[in-house]
């Protein structure tokens, strides 16, 4: 069992980032799905909905980028 953990030791950050990317991926899907639904219901508010949708996308994507950079920052500490 310890041999398997030693073999996986170098890839723990990659596995952790893969798991951390699931949340933002689901969030982005929800944002765009609900945005399209809102535009279909009220086409006159397309500009406002699109702006809010893109703002939500940017903030959610920032979480994924922080998850990518965090292992490198904490590895040096």
UniProtKB/TrEMBL annotation:
This is ATP synthase subunit c. One of its GO terms (molecular function) is lipid binding. It is a multi-pass membrane protein. The keyword Isomerase does not apply. The lineage of its organism: Bacteria, Bacillati, Actinomycetota, Actinomycetes, Streptosporangiales. The record marks 61 as: Reversibly protonated during proton transport. The chain crosses the membrane at residues 12-32, 53-74. InterPro entries: ATP_synth_csu_bac/chlpt, ATP_synth_F0_csu, ATP_synth_F0_csu_DDCD_BS, ATP_synth_F0_csu_sf, ATPase_proteolipid_c-like_dom, F/V-ATP_Csub_sf. HAMAP family: ATP_synth_c_bact. Its main location: membrane. SUPFAM superfamilies: F1F0 ATP synthase subunit C (SSF81333). Keywords: ATP synthesis, Cell membrane, CF(0), Hydrogen ion transport, Ion transport, Lipid-binding, Membrane, Transmembrane, Transmembrane helix, Transport. Residues 14-73 form the V-ATPase proteolipid subunit C-like domain. One of its GO terms (cellular component) is plasma membrane. It comes from Actinomadura physcomitrii. Key component of the F(0) channel; it plays a direct role in translocation across the membrane. A homomeric c-ring of between 10-14 subunits forms the central stalk rotor element with the F(1) delta and epsilon subunits.
């Amino acid at each position: 069992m310890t041999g398997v953990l030693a073999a996986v030791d170098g890839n723990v950050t990659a596995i952790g980032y893969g798991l951390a990317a699931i949340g933002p991926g689901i969030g982005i899907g929800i944002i765009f799905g609900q945005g399209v639904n809102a535009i279909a219901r009220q086409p006159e508010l397309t500009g406002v909905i699109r702006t809010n949708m893109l703002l939500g996308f940017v903030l959610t994507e920032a979480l994924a980028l922080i998850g990518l950079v965090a292992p490198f920052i904490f590895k040096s500490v």
